[in-house]
UniProtKB/TrEMBL annotation:
InterPro entries: FluC
Gene name per UniProt: fluC
Family membership: Belongs to the fluoride channel Fluc/FEX (TC 1.A.43) family.
Protein localization: Cell membrane
Regions crossing the membrane: 5-22, 34-57, 69-89, 101-121
Keyword line: Cell inner membrane, Cell membrane, Ion channel, Ion transport, Membrane, Metal-binding, Sodium, Transmembrane, Transmembrane helix, Transport
Membrane-related topology note: Multi-pass membrane protein
Reactions the enzyme catalyzes: fluoride(in) = fluoride(out)
Protein name from the UniProt record: Fluoride-specific ion channel FluC
GO molecular function: fluoride channel activity; metal ion binding
Positions that bind Na(+): 76, 79
GO CC annotation terms, alphabetical: plasma membrane
GO biological process, one term: cellular detoxification of fluoride
Species the sequence originates in: Moheibacter sediminis
């Protein structure tokens, strides 16, 4: 159990740092009302989790440690569902219903597509 917690912590720290960096640099170049930074983080996180799961299914000898490190830790620390929910709430409160709908629907639909794409990419490895 302790070993799993350590792997989760290391992965979570790395994911959180990468999320901060992606958000920081995206916001430097994007100042529109669409929350592009969280959108990019969540879609790339979906792609990565699909890739990680696909690789782990292919190479089953990787074991639980890699799952804890990459899926639970890294992807859990990297993706931002709470920020996604807050941004949708703020958009609704600002009366930006069309942006809210586009953001929410595109995030969910493209997120699923990215998980599929990640799993498909894992077959090339």
């Amino acid at each position: 159990m302790l070993k799993s917690l350590i792997f989760i912590g290391i992965g979570g720290a790395a994911g959180s740092i990468l999320r901060f960096l992606v958000s920081h640099f995206t916001k430097k170049f994007w100042n529109g009302e669409f929350p592009l930074a969280t959108f990019l983080v969540n879609l790339s996180g979906c792609l990565l989790i699909g890739l990680f799961i696909g690789v782990m299914l292919k190479w089953q000898n990787l074991g639980t440690d890699f799952r804890m490190l990459l899926i639970v830790g890294f992807c859990g620390g990297y993706t931002t569902f709470s920020a996604f929910a807050l941004e949708n709430f703020d958009l609704l409160n600002s009366g930006k219903i069309s942006v809210t709908l586009i953001y929410a629907l595109a995030s969910v639909i493209l997120g699923i597509v990215c998980v599929w794409a990640g799993m498909a990419l894992s077959k090339l490895i």
